[in-house]
Amino acid sequence: MNNNYITATQRFSRPPYRFTEASLVKKLEELGIGRPSTYAPTISTIQNRKYVEKGTVDGSERNYTLWTMSNNELVGKKLSEKFGSDKGKLVPTDIGMIVTDFLVNHFEAILDYNFTAKVEADFDLIASGKEDWTKMMKSFYKDFHPQVEEVSKNADRESGERVLGVDPKTGRQLSVRLGKFGPIVQIGLADEDEKQVFASVPPNFQLASITFDEALDLFQLPKDLGEYKGEDIIVNNGRFGPYVKYGDKYISIPKGADPMRVEMEDAIQYIKEKEAADAPIYEYDGLPVQKGKGRFGPFIKWNSMFINVNKKYDWDNLSSDDIENLIKDKIQKEIDKLIHDWEEDGIRVEKARWGRHNIIQGKIKIELPKTVDATKLTLDDAKELIAKNAPKKKTRAKKKK
């Protein structure tokens, strides 16, 4: 066989393909799972429950070689490609992988793609009157319910624990697992006399891939960087991710940034950016008005009150009239929803959604049934309901020595 030239391209192994929202919908359609009306709620639910999150990594450049043989001469050419980008893709979180493992281990048949597609087909038959829905549900629950009972009684709690090795300083076990407030690194065991030592795992690491050295480095936090304008600057990792503590202020470190590499210059930049963002944009009734963006969208803050700014306003160019209208509307809404306010006892009764009412005392919120006339409630009634329905404080059982 004659040839003009032969090429050989260097290639690298690739991680599993990550779905975007659009490609996930396409895959669900191919598998016969769900309906168009259920795709958006399904994708929202897995994100709201933190099972997946949208990637933010742009990726990096790497070199590869393209070899070409022509006229008995071999020539290599250096090229580059982008790799590791997950921006906009749905990336499974630690809790998402642990929940999936738990469900696959205990409910493998339910998580099978064919099971879901069959149930959808059964629903179609029920809708067309060709199948009795009670028989279909009974045939499902006769096996499913006992399985749920068995798992709830006997299954161990999944934590995704990985033992990484032994801490060189103490000689105690070093491991990672999912804790109450997120992924953690742990030195020591629960049954040892010496207390365990914990460190939070930042969002840029995963339990399945974090290395021994990376886990050990996390115990270098909190890191004291020194003073700036008479206040201490400390870098640490917390429940909601890495942050810089400046005096009594907590400033989140940008997503993807490594807290271990944050130095004084970086911390000062984060502080200045935060101060600029928190600077008052207006003054109303002698109190400053600030603006920001939170998990529910843009807002303004006035007198410890957070006020959502909807799309009818130009967020970047709020006028004085816009700000005053937003504050006045919010104040009126707060007045309108208040039924009772016993200030001395710190108890109030407010309107809630769907015609219901809430009794509120500090962090305690008790929803009243529709059958209760909130306007006729007395302070004694409210106190009695709080005492009856407030969550009981948990007491830790003492360890047996």
List keywords for this structure.
single chain; 401 residues; alpha+beta; Topoisomerase I, domain 2; four-stranded antiparallel β-sheet; 32% helix; 30% strand; globular
User: Which structural class fits the helix and strand makeup?
Assistant: alpha+beta
CATH architectural designation of the largest domain:
Orthogonal Bundle
From the 3D structure, determine the CATH topology of the largest domain.
Topoisomerase I, domain 2
Radius of gyration computed on alpha carbons: 29 Å
* Structure summary, number of beta strands: 21
The CATH H-level superfamily of the largest domain is Topoisomerase I, domain 2
So how many helices? 10
Give the distance, in angstroms, between the N- and C-terminal Cα atoms: 82 Å
Low-confidence stretches: none
Average pLDDT over all residues: 87
Task: Give the topology.
Elements: E1 6-9, H1 21-31, H2 36-48, E2 52-54, E3 60-70, E4 73-83, E5 90-92, H3 94-106, H4 108-111, H5 113-127, H6 133-154, E6 162-166, E7 173-179, E8 182-187, E9 197-200, H7 212-217, E10 223-228, E11 231-238, E12 241-246, E13 249-252, H8 264-278, E14 282-284, E15 287-294, E16 297-302, E17 305-308, H9 320-337, E18 338-342, E19 347-351, E20 357-361, E21 364-368, H10 379-389
Antiparallel strand pairs: 1-3, 2-5, 3-4, 6-7, 7-8, 8-9, 10-11, 11-12, 12-13, 14-15, 15-16, 16-17, 18-19, 19-20, 20-21
Provide a short characterization of the protein structure.
The protein has 401 residues and is α+β, with helices and mostly antiparallel strands.
